[in-house]
Write a structure and sequence with these properties.
It is built from 5 helices and 4 strands. The termini are far apart. It is rod-shaped and about 105 Å long. It folds into 2 domains: 12-67, no CATH class; 87-136. The strands form 2 sheets. It has a two-stranded antiparallel ribbon with strand order 1-2. The protein has helices at residues 3-8, 45-52, 87-91, 95-111, 113-136; strands at residues 16-18, 25-27, 32-35, 39-42. By secondary structure, it is mostly helical.
Length: 137
C-alpha cells in the first residue's frame, strides 16, 4: 500500500501487537490469544509457557483453532512404584532384575522407612504362610 493510498484511506489495517509477557512489538499473528481481564496476546511458545504459570491461559484461549490437532508432550516423570516380593517371586528373578529390585528397595526405605518396615513385615508373613502351606502338602 503506497503512502498516498494510506492518506486517502483513513482505515488503516494494523497487523502488529505487543506481547503481554515480553512486551515486544511483533507483526503478524500472535502465538496465542487469551481473554483474562481483557484480550492478551503472546508472541511465542516461551512467552506462552511463562504466562500460563501466572494466568490460566488454556482455560481462556481465544484462538483455539490454532491448537487443534496438536500433540502436546507430557513431561511428567514416570515413577515406578515399588512392591516387596515374596521369596517365591525373588527366586524367579534374574541377577539383573534382583540387583534392580534391591536398589529400588533401598530407595523405598530411604523415602519412607516406617511404611517400608510395615510392608516388609507383611511380606514376611506371606512367606511364613507359603512355608506352612508347603509343609502341610
Amino acid at each position: 500500500m503506497s503512502y498516498s493510498n494510506i492518506i486517502k484511506n483513513k482505515s488503516i489495517i494494523k497487523n502488529d501487537y505487543r506481547c503481554n509477557n515480553c512486551k515486544c512489538v511483533k507483526k503478524g499473528k500472535p502465538w496465542s490469544i487469551y481473554d483474562y481481564n481483557g484480550i492478551k496476546k503472546l508472541c511465542s511458545y516461551i512467552c506462552h509457557t511463562k504466562e500460563r504459570t501466572i494466568h490460566p491461559v488454556w482455560d481462556n484461549l481465544v484462538n483455539v483453532e490454532d491448537f487443534e490437532n496438536i500433540i502436546i508432550p507430557n513431561f511428567e516423570p514416570v515413577v515406578e512404584t515399588f512392591y516387596f516380593k515374596t521369596n517365591l517371586e525373588l527366586d524367579e528373578l534374574t541377577d539383573e532384575e534382583y540387583t534392580k529390585y534391591m536398589n529400588m528397595r533401598e530407595e523405598h526405605y530411604s523415602i519412607n522407612p516406617e511404611r517400608a518396615k510395615l510392608e516388609e513385615k507383611y511380606v514376611e508373613d506371606e512367606n511364613y504362610i507359603d512355608k506352612l502351606e508347603n509343609i502341610s502338602l
